[in-house]
Automatic annotation (TrEMBL):
<keyword id="KW-0805">Transcription regulation</keyword>
<dbReference type="GO" id="GO:0003700">
    <property type="term" value="F:DNA-binding transcription factor activity"/>
</dbReference>
<feature type="domain" description="HTH myb-type">
    <location>
        <begin position="16"/>
        <end position="68"/>
    </location>
</feature>
<dbReference type="GO" id="GO:0043565">
    <property type="term" value="F:sequence-specific DNA binding"/>
</dbReference>
<dbReference type="Pfam" id="PF00249">
    <property type="entry name" value="Myb_DNA-binding"/>
</dbReference>
<keyword id="KW-0539">Nucleus</keyword>
<protein>
    <submittedName>
        <fullName>SANT/Myb domain</fullName>
    </submittedName>
</protein>
<feature type="domain" description="Myb-like">
    <location>
        <begin position="69"/>
        <end position="119"/>
    </location>
</feature>
<dbReference type="InterPro" id="IPR044676">
    <property type="entry name" value="EOBI/EOBII-like_plant"/>
</dbReference>
<keyword id="KW-0238">DNA-binding</keyword>
<keyword id="KW-0804">Transcription</keyword>
<keyword id="KW-0677">Repeat</keyword>
<dbReference type="InterPro" id="IPR001005">
    <property type="entry name" value="SANT/Myb"/>
</dbReference>
<dbReference type="GO" id="GO:0005634">
    <property type="term" value="C:nucleus"/>
</dbReference>
<feature type="domain" description="HTH myb-type">
    <location>
        <begin position="69"/>
        <end position="123"/>
    </location>
</feature>
<feature type="domain" description="Myb-like">
    <location>
        <begin position="16"/>
        <end position="68"/>
    </location>
</feature>
<dbReference type="InterPro" id="IPR017930">
    <property type="entry name" value="Myb_dom"/>
</dbReference>
Amino acid sequence: MDEKGRSLKNNNMEDEMDLKRGPWTAEEDFKLMNYIATNGEGRWNSLSRCAGLQRTGKSCRLRWLNYLRPDVRRGNITLEEQLLILELHSRWGNRWSKIAQYLPGRTDNEIKNYWRTRVQKHAKQLKCDVNSQQFKDTMKYLWMPRLVERIQSASASAAAAATTTTTNTTGSAGTSSCITTSNNQFMNYDYNNNMGQQYGVMSNNDYITPENSSVAVSPASDLTEYYSAPNPNPEYYSGQMGNSYYPDQNLVGSQLLPENYFDYSGLLDEDLTTMQEQSNLNWFENINGPASSSDSLWNIGETDEDFWFLQQQQHLNNNGSF
DNA sequence: AAGTCCTACAACCGCCAGCCT
DNA sequence: AAGGCTGGCGGTTGTAGGACT
């Protein structure tokens, strides 16, 4: 019997057994949680029967993994998580479950939904395919650096508010910052070495820094929103930036450490030139969309911050650095 | 206030690989 | 070796609720 035949057979069996579909009720959730608490998970079909649920094993598994599991993290995707998703997706594509391994508490389904609703939306606004080189470049050279900047900005604000110390050291060789994330993760990011000198972004210490910026975290858009969900299980995250955080041992301590996320050292100015040439439109017009667009990539003009950011970009553009 | 549109996300579906008999 | 079963994955759909007109 082929796969389709098998599926039909399964479906018929399910019909015969009058299995329930659609949203789960609180009672069903309770049954499932109770059963798993006592007997553990796995063997989902028999689990479903034994727990007295009129659901497929698949449905039970999905409900447990995506919703009922105690370590499922609720709340909006944070900036740090957005950054990680963009980076890992650029590495692996639509390998949602693999990407989810690197975001504790987040499910593949949630990440997939985030990608479809937020990222693909922006690709649509740019009138380019989400898999196109143009959009990938936009993410890599504008969106992701922007996220880094916002993370640092939010971190600096939080630190100032808490009157605790953040480690910002300024030396003649460059500016290195410690980005403290909402999960007490930290990212060492060297503006000058990783991006600034190569691309003219954030390269000048008296130009863009969290200290001299008037950046205020605002919920104006996907790119400006910031919400750090309460951590339901704090101990789960402790030490997650250490080696144990990364299930793929081949990447431990090398490619995936945050300080390497934006190591664009292999990229040349010609690459950016080519990138711009590939676009028929002005780079910034293309990114920002028409002035009337209310939900463009940066929501230009909606907040002082975004206007400020655009000015910085235009300044860099005019100076030929970008 | 009512209707329509949009967004986010839960849930389902088909396919596949691996294991077991 | 072949067929069946199970779990896992990525793609897609349905829908509740908020935003907009």
